[in-house]
Amino acid sequence: MASNFDLYVERRHTDSDKWHKYEDTEIIPLWVADSDFKSPPVVIEALQKRVAHGVFGYGYPSPALIDVFIQRMKQRYQWDIKSEWLVFLPGLVCGLNLCVRALTTPEQGTIAPHPIYSPFMKAARFANRNQISAPVKLQNKRWVLDLEATENQLSGSEKMLLLCNPQNPGGTVYRRHELVAQLDFAQRHNLIVCSDEIHCDLLLDEGLKHIPFASLSEDAAQRSVTLMSPSKTFNIAGLGASIAVIPNTALRHRFIEARSGIVPSVDILAYVAATAAYQGGEEWLSEQLVYLRGNRDLVLERINAIPGLKLMPIEATYLAWIDASGLAVTNPHAFFEQAGVGLSPGSDFGNPNFVRLNFGCQRALLEQALTRMANAVATLPALA
């Protein structure tokens, strides 16, 4: 049965971080990256069955979850992985932080794209590690990593390259030759690579293919930690189930040791949801992608019709990285918030002239938000 992604689900007063921020206002929340869609029925049914059991003790990843994840990586990405490489985590962000703390020393620096999802920057700051910003530049209407500009900043103390593919917030899906260039960069500078691939299932351009960094070669596998999760794909982020794939034994042991006594194990309901999603959520995912493509096309059309705003093509994710530098405002995030649309401020990602819009929502709500944005901009004086 086809899922109804146009169904509005009331999320106010449901302990939703996304909706609570503007709970007693008329502001439409299109900021933090969870979607407003009901999760796949197979996930809901599995959770209901597990809740009915009534006992919620400590859990562990079942053989079924491990097997379906390994099979999925093989079928979708032609990536052969082994069960002993897997480390299950209660979220992907803690994986970023563990990578920095476990696999670098205080004297060693990190390299991260810029602009980027804010936990990349925070992970270095929390661990008191220096971080070099690798600029993400616009090339043929795609946001890509500028490795040449990054090279000129290196001091020689850098030990880790943090990657994000698909890129958040730009929505770029890196091609093989671009990933090979990133691997070559890591090899020349003897870098460990932490690759956030949480949006890998949400490819909006049908001709594109996600390529895990670690699948490029044996060398790529041995110098990398790949972070994945069903959370964005199936809208189960609040349950907290993520997976670090670490082929290198020494790196894996350091990673596991660093989490001991600090990062808890995964909740049993999260394991249940992840297993059900991977086993039976493919049809729902395909339907969601069709709906998201329609939302993406709507956002591109409407945003680029607003004077002062620019939006490049979005290859993946349900996130739009909007250039608002052409507006006669000092703070585009505050401006649109006053107009009734709650976006993510570009300053969180490293560029205050941008805003990020989450279009993982009902189309009618999205249309309303876009109309508010257009109406607000129409009140501004035109820039000379």
From TrEMBL:
State the InterPro entries in the record.
Aminotransferase_I/II_large (IPR004839), C-S_lyase_PatB-like (IPR027619), Class-II_PLP-Dep_Aminotrans (IPR051798), PyrdxlP-dep_Trfase (IPR015424), PyrdxlP-dep_Trfase_major (IPR015421), PyrdxlP-dep_Trfase_small (IPR015422)
Q: What is its EC number?
A: 4.4.1.13
| Needed cofactors | pyridoxal 5'-phosphate
Report keywords, A-Z: Lyase, Pyridoxal phosphate
Aminotransferase class I/classII large domain location is 27-372
Q: Give, as one word, the top-level EC class.
A: lyase
- Does the keyword field hold Lyase? yes
Provide the GO MF annotations for this entry: cysteine-S-conjugate beta-lyase activity; pyridoxal phosphate binding
Which superkingdom? Bacteria
- Stated family: Belongs to the class-II pyridoxal-phosphate-dependent aminotransferase family. MalY/PatB cystathionine beta-lyase subfamily.
Q: What is this protein called?
A: cysteine-S-conjugate beta-lyase
